[in-house]
Amino acid sequence: MPSILRNTAVTLIAVIALYWLTGFYGTALRDPRVLDGWVLCGGMCAQLLFHIRKKLPASPLGKAASWLKVHVYAGYFVIAAFLFHTSFSLPESLFEWTLWTLFVVVVVSGLVGLYLSASIPAKLQEQGYEQITFEQIPAARQKLSREINALVLESVTQTGSPEISEFYVHRLRNFFRKPQNMRAHLRGSRRPLDRICNELDDLERYADAKGGKLLSSIKTLVVAKYDLDHQYAFQGLLQSWSFVHVPATYCLVVLSILHVAIVYAYSSGVQ
Questions:
Q1: Which helix (H) or strand (E) holds 201?
Q2: CA–CA separation, 10 vs 19, rounded Å?
Q3: pLDDT average, residue stretch 38-44
Q4: Can you give the three-state secondary structure of the chain, one letter per residue?
Q5: Residues 249, 186: contact at Cβ < 8 Å?
Q6: What share of the chain is helix, strand, coil (3-state, %, to 5)?
Q7: Can you tell me the distance from the alpha carbon of 245 to that of 102, in angstroms, rounded to the nearest whole number?
Q8: What is the reported pLDDT for 115?
Q9: Is the confidence at residue 64, as pLDDT, over 90?
Protein backbone atom coordinates (compact mmCIF):
# COMPACT_ATOMS: atom_id res chain seq x y z
CA MET A 1 0.00 0.00 0.00
CA PRO A 2 2.75 2.60 0.77
CA SER A 3 4.27 2.03 -2.69
CA ILE A 4 0.87 2.56 -4.33
CA LEU A 5 0.35 5.79 -2.40
CA ARG A 6 3.87 6.95 -3.22
CA ASN A 7 3.54 6.21 -6.92
CA THR A 8 0.10 7.83 -7.05
CA ALA A 9 1.41 10.93 -5.28
CA VAL A 10 4.36 11.24 -7.68
CA THR A 11 2.01 10.90 -10.65
CA LEU A 12 -0.37 13.54 -9.30
CA ILE A 13 2.51 15.93 -8.66
CA ALA A 14 3.73 15.42 -12.23
CA VAL A 15 0.23 16.06 -13.59
CA ILE A 16 -0.17 19.22 -11.50
CA ALA A 17 3.29 20.41 -12.60
CA LEU A 18 2.37 19.87 -16.25
CA TYR A 19 -0.91 21.77 -15.75
CA TRP A 20 0.95 24.67 -14.14
CA LEU A 21 3.63 24.73 -16.84
CA THR A 22 1.07 24.75 -19.66
CA GLY A 23 -0.72 27.63 -17.94
CA PHE A 24 2.52 29.54 -17.52
CA TYR A 25 3.42 28.78 -21.13
CA GLY A 26 0.10 30.28 -22.22
CA THR A 27 0.60 33.46 -20.22
CA ALA A 28 3.91 33.93 -22.01
CA LEU A 29 1.91 34.35 -25.23
CA ARG A 30 2.88 30.92 -26.48
CA ASP A 31 0.62 28.09 -27.52
CA PRO A 32 0.49 25.64 -24.56
CA ARG A 33 -0.34 22.84 -26.97
CA VAL A 34 3.28 22.94 -28.11
CA LEU A 35 4.48 22.11 -24.61
CA ASP A 36 1.94 19.45 -23.68
CA GLY A 37 2.09 18.10 -27.23
CA TRP A 38 5.81 17.41 -26.93
CA VAL A 39 5.31 15.96 -23.46
CA LEU A 40 2.54 13.72 -24.81
CA CYS A 41 4.60 12.56 -27.78
CA GLY A 42 7.64 11.91 -25.59
CA GLY A 43 5.53 10.05 -23.03
CA MET A 44 4.03 7.75 -25.66
CA CYS A 45 7.46 7.02 -27.14
CA ALA A 46 8.77 6.26 -23.65
CA GLN A 47 5.91 3.80 -23.14
CA LEU A 48 7.36 1.70 -25.96
CA LEU A 49 10.43 1.03 -23.81
CA PHE A 50 8.37 -1.35 -21.66
CA HIS A 51 7.39 -3.45 -24.69
CA ILE A 52 11.06 -3.56 -25.72
CA ARG A 53 12.07 -4.54 -22.17
CA LYS A 54 9.57 -7.44 -22.20
CA LYS A 55 11.38 -8.93 -25.19
CA LEU A 56 14.65 -8.94 -23.22
CA PRO A 57 13.99 -11.28 -20.27
CA ALA A 58 17.67 -11.56 -19.39
CA SER A 59 18.30 -7.82 -19.59
CA PRO A 60 20.34 -6.17 -16.79
CA LEU A 61 18.15 -3.06 -17.06
CA GLY A 62 16.10 -3.90 -13.97
CA LYS A 63 13.19 -6.13 -13.04
CA ALA A 64 10.25 -6.43 -15.41
CA ALA A 65 7.86 -5.82 -12.48
CA SER A 66 9.50 -2.45 -11.81
CA TRP A 67 9.24 -1.54 -15.48
CA LEU A 68 5.56 -2.47 -15.41
CA LYS A 69 4.88 -0.12 -12.50
CA VAL A 70 6.62 2.73 -14.30
CA HIS A 71 4.69 1.87 -17.47
CA VAL A 72 1.35 1.96 -15.66
CA TYR A 73 1.84 5.21 -13.76
CA ALA A 74 3.49 6.88 -16.73
CA GLY A 75 0.42 5.82 -18.68
CA TYR A 76 -1.81 7.71 -16.24
CA PHE A 77 0.39 10.77 -16.72
CA VAL A 78 0.13 10.42 -20.51
CA ILE A 79 -3.67 10.30 -20.23
CA ALA A 80 -3.60 13.61 -18.36
CA ALA A 81 -1.25 15.12 -20.96
CA PHE A 82 -3.61 13.97 -23.71
CA LEU A 83 -6.59 15.63 -22.01
CA PHE A 84 -4.62 18.87 -21.58
CA HIS A 85 -3.47 18.77 -25.21
CA THR A 86 -6.99 18.23 -26.55
CA SER A 87 -8.51 20.73 -24.09
CA PHE A 88 -10.97 18.01 -23.02
CA SER A 89 -12.74 18.33 -26.38
CA LEU A 90 -13.46 16.05 -29.31
CA PRO A 91 -11.37 16.25 -32.50
CA GLU A 92 -12.47 17.95 -35.69
CA SER A 93 -10.55 16.55 -38.67
CA LEU A 94 -10.39 12.95 -39.84
CA PHE A 95 -6.70 12.69 -38.96
CA GLU A 96 -7.35 13.99 -35.44
CA TRP A 97 -10.21 11.52 -35.05
CA THR A 98 -7.84 8.71 -36.05
CA LEU A 99 -5.32 9.80 -33.42
CA TRP A 100 -8.04 10.22 -30.80
CA THR A 101 -9.54 6.79 -31.55
CA LEU A 102 -6.16 5.06 -31.45
CA PHE A 103 -5.36 6.72 -28.13
CA VAL A 104 -8.67 5.56 -26.64
CA VAL A 105 -8.04 2.00 -27.93
CA VAL A 106 -4.57 2.00 -26.35
CA VAL A 107 -5.86 3.30 -23.02
CA VAL A 108 -8.88 0.99 -22.81
CA SER A 109 -6.92 -2.09 -23.88
CA GLY A 110 -4.19 -1.18 -21.39
CA LEU A 111 -6.66 -0.85 -18.53
CA VAL A 112 -8.31 -4.14 -19.50
CA GLY A 113 -4.90 -5.80 -19.62
CA LEU A 114 -4.01 -4.35 -16.22
CA TYR A 115 -7.20 -5.78 -14.72
CA LEU A 116 -6.73 -9.20 -16.34
CA SER A 117 -3.07 -9.36 -15.29
CA ALA A 118 -4.06 -8.72 -11.69
CA SER A 119 -7.16 -10.92 -11.51
CA ILE A 120 -6.53 -14.03 -13.62
CA PRO A 121 -3.29 -15.33 -12.01
CA ALA A 122 -4.78 -14.73 -8.55
CA LYS A 123 -7.98 -16.52 -9.54
CA LEU A 124 -6.13 -19.55 -10.90
CA GLN A 125 -4.00 -19.69 -7.77
CA GLU A 126 -7.07 -19.56 -5.54
CA GLN A 127 -8.58 -22.45 -7.48
CA GLY A 128 -5.51 -24.52 -6.69
CA TYR A 129 -4.21 -24.99 -10.23
CA GLU A 130 -0.59 -25.96 -10.75
CA GLN A 131 1.35 -22.98 -12.06
CA ILE A 132 2.14 -23.43 -15.75
CA THR A 133 2.96 -20.85 -18.39
CA PHE A 134 0.86 -20.39 -21.51
CA GLU A 135 3.78 -21.56 -23.65
CA GLN A 136 4.06 -24.83 -21.68
CA ILE A 137 0.40 -25.81 -22.15
CA PRO A 138 0.75 -27.43 -25.64
CA ALA A 139 3.53 -29.72 -24.39
CA ALA A 140 1.45 -30.66 -21.33
CA ARG A 141 -1.53 -31.41 -23.61
CA GLN A 142 0.60 -33.68 -25.81
CA LYS A 143 1.82 -35.54 -22.73
CA LEU A 144 -1.75 -36.22 -21.62
CA SER A 145 -2.63 -37.34 -25.14
CA ARG A 146 0.22 -39.87 -25.15
CA GLU A 147 -0.83 -41.17 -21.76
CA ILE A 148 -4.46 -41.66 -22.79
CA ASN A 149 -3.37 -43.43 -25.99
CA ALA A 150 -1.22 -45.80 -23.93
CA LEU A 151 -4.15 -46.61 -21.61
CA VAL A 152 -6.51 -47.25 -24.53
CA LEU A 153 -3.97 -49.56 -26.15
CA GLU A 154 -3.52 -51.33 -22.83
CA SER A 155 -7.28 -51.81 -22.56
CA VAL A 156 -7.36 -53.60 -25.91
CA THR A 157 -4.46 -55.94 -25.06
CA GLN A 158 -5.47 -56.69 -21.46
CA THR A 159 -9.26 -56.84 -21.52
CA GLY A 160 -9.89 -57.78 -25.12
CA SER A 161 -12.95 -55.55 -25.00
CA PRO A 162 -13.47 -52.80 -27.62
CA GLU A 163 -15.73 -50.67 -25.38
CA ILE A 164 -12.99 -48.43 -23.97
CA SER A 165 -11.32 -47.90 -27.35
CA GLU A 166 -14.69 -47.14 -28.99
CA PHE A 167 -15.51 -44.66 -26.24
CA TYR A 168 -12.13 -43.02 -26.79
CA VAL A 169 -12.67 -42.73 -30.55
CA HIS A 170 -16.16 -41.24 -30.23
CA ARG A 171 -15.81 -39.10 -27.10
CA LEU A 172 -12.20 -38.54 -26.07
CA ARG A 173 -9.96 -38.35 -29.13
CA ASN A 174 -10.92 -34.81 -30.09
CA PHE A 175 -11.14 -33.85 -26.42
CA PHE A 176 -7.45 -34.65 -25.92
CA ARG A 177 -6.34 -33.42 -29.33
CA LYS A 178 -7.03 -29.70 -28.82
CA PRO A 179 -8.55 -27.24 -26.31
CA GLN A 180 -12.26 -27.76 -25.77
CA ASN A 181 -15.23 -26.05 -24.08
CA MET A 182 -13.67 -22.57 -23.96
CA ARG A 183 -16.99 -20.84 -23.24
CA ALA A 184 -17.76 -23.22 -20.39
CA HIS A 185 -14.34 -22.56 -18.86
CA LEU A 186 -14.75 -18.79 -19.04
CA ARG A 187 -18.17 -19.15 -17.39
CA GLY A 188 -16.67 -21.37 -14.69
CA SER A 189 -18.88 -24.31 -15.68
CA ARG A 190 -17.78 -27.94 -15.24
CA ARG A 191 -20.84 -29.48 -16.89
CA PRO A 192 -18.90 -30.81 -19.94
CA LEU A 193 -16.51 -32.58 -17.56
CA ASP A 194 -19.39 -34.00 -15.52
CA ARG A 195 -20.99 -35.45 -18.66
CA ILE A 196 -17.80 -37.29 -19.65
CA CYS A 197 -17.21 -38.53 -16.10
CA ASN A 198 -20.79 -39.80 -15.86
CA GLU A 199 -20.34 -41.74 -19.10
CA LEU A 200 -17.10 -43.21 -17.78
CA ASP A 201 -18.90 -44.22 -14.57
CA ASP A 202 -21.54 -46.00 -16.62
CA LEU A 203 -18.83 -47.96 -18.45
CA GLU A 204 -17.10 -48.79 -15.18
CA ARG A 205 -20.23 -50.42 -13.75
CA TYR A 206 -20.10 -53.17 -16.37
CA ALA A 207 -16.32 -53.52 -16.60
CA ASP A 208 -14.20 -56.18 -14.94
CA ALA A 209 -11.49 -55.37 -12.42
CA LYS A 210 -8.84 -54.59 -15.04
CA GLY A 211 -11.24 -52.51 -17.10
CA GLY A 212 -12.43 -50.63 -14.02
CA LYS A 213 -8.87 -49.76 -13.05
CA LEU A 214 -8.13 -48.50 -16.56
CA LEU A 215 -11.31 -46.43 -16.65
CA SER A 216 -10.39 -44.88 -13.32
CA SER A 217 -6.99 -43.89 -14.72
CA ILE A 218 -8.66 -42.52 -17.85
CA LYS A 219 -11.00 -40.41 -15.72
CA THR A 220 -7.98 -38.95 -13.91
CA LEU A 221 -6.48 -37.92 -17.26
CA VAL A 222 -9.82 -36.46 -18.39
CA VAL A 223 -9.98 -34.26 -15.29
CA ALA A 224 -6.35 -33.20 -15.80
CA LYS A 225 -7.07 -32.29 -19.44
CA TYR A 226 -10.17 -30.30 -18.45
CA ASP A 227 -8.18 -28.39 -15.84
CA LEU A 228 -5.45 -27.74 -18.42
CA ASP A 229 -8.04 -26.35 -20.83
CA HIS A 230 -9.34 -24.15 -18.02
CA GLN A 231 -5.90 -22.61 -17.64
CA TYR A 232 -5.58 -22.31 -21.42
CA ALA A 233 -8.87 -20.39 -21.65
CA PHE A 234 -7.95 -17.84 -18.99
CA GLN A 235 -4.29 -17.51 -19.89
CA GLY A 236 -5.30 -17.14 -23.54
CA LEU A 237 -7.63 -14.33 -22.49
CA LEU A 238 -4.73 -12.81 -20.58
CA GLN A 239 -2.56 -12.99 -23.71
CA SER A 240 -5.19 -11.72 -26.15
CA TRP A 241 -5.43 -8.11 -24.96
CA SER A 242 -1.82 -7.45 -25.96
CA PHE A 243 -2.66 -8.28 -29.59
CA VAL A 244 -4.77 -5.11 -29.54
CA HIS A 245 -2.73 -2.94 -27.18
CA VAL A 246 0.74 -3.34 -28.67
CA PRO A 247 -0.07 -2.81 -32.40
CA ALA A 248 -2.34 0.12 -31.53
CA THR A 249 0.49 1.65 -29.47
CA TYR A 250 2.98 1.44 -32.35
CA CYS A 251 0.43 2.89 -34.79
CA LEU A 252 -0.32 5.71 -32.38
CA VAL A 253 3.34 6.62 -31.95
CA VAL A 254 3.95 6.63 -35.72
CA LEU A 255 0.90 8.81 -36.40
CA SER A 256 1.84 11.11 -33.52
CA ILE A 257 5.28 11.69 -35.05
CA LEU A 258 3.57 12.37 -38.37
CA HIS A 259 1.22 14.78 -36.59
CA VAL A 260 4.20 16.68 -35.15
CA ALA A 261 5.83 16.85 -38.58
CA ILE A 262 2.63 18.21 -40.15
CA VAL A 263 2.16 20.83 -37.44
CA TYR A 264 5.71 22.12 -37.79
CA ALA A 265 5.52 22.00 -41.57
CA TYR A 266 2.47 24.25 -41.62
CA SER A 267 3.79 26.54 -38.87
CA SER A 268 6.94 27.13 -40.89
CA GLY A 269 4.94 28.02 -43.96
CA VAL A 270 5.52 24.82 -45.96
CA GLN A 271 2.52 24.17 -48.24
A1: helix 191-205
A2: 14
A3: 84
A4: CHHHHHHHHHHHHHHHHHHHHHHHHHHCCCCHHHHHHHHHHHHHHHHHHHHHHHCCCCCCCCCHHHHHHHHHHHHHHHHHHHHHHCCCCCCCCHHHHHHHHHHHHHHHHHHHHHHHHHHHHHHHHHCCCCCCCHHHHHHHHHHHHHHHHHHHHHHHHHHCCCHHHHHHHHHHHHHHHCCCCHHHHHHCCCHHHHHHHHHHHHHHHCCCHHHHHHHHHHHHHHHHHHHHHHHHHHHHHHHHCHHHHHHHHHHHHHHHHHHHHHHHHHHCCCC
A5: no
A6: 85, 0, 15
A7: 10
A8: 92
A9: no
Higher pLDDT, 100 or 65: 100
For 52-82, b/e burial (b = at least 16 CB within 10 A) is ebeeeeeeeeeeeeebeebbbbbbbbbbbbb
In a 13 Å sphere around the CA of 251, the CA atoms on its Cβ side amount to 16
Average pLDDT score, the chain? 86
Contact predicate 241/116, CB 8 Å: yes
d(CA 42, CA 251): 15
Q: What is the pTM of this model?
A: 0.76
Q: Average pLDDT for residues 12-23, to the nearest whole number?
A: 87
Region 102-131: what's the mean pLDDT?
Answer: 88
Asked whether 36 and 81 are in contact (CB, 8 A), the reply is yes
User: Measured over all CA atoms, what is the biggest interatomic distance in the chain, rounded to whole angstroms?
Assistant: 93
Contact 223, 59 (CB under 8 A): no
- Collect all residues with Cβ–Cβ distance below 8 Å to 254 and sequence separation of at least 6: none
Under a CB-based contact definition with an 8 Å cutoff, are residues 70 and 46 in contact? no
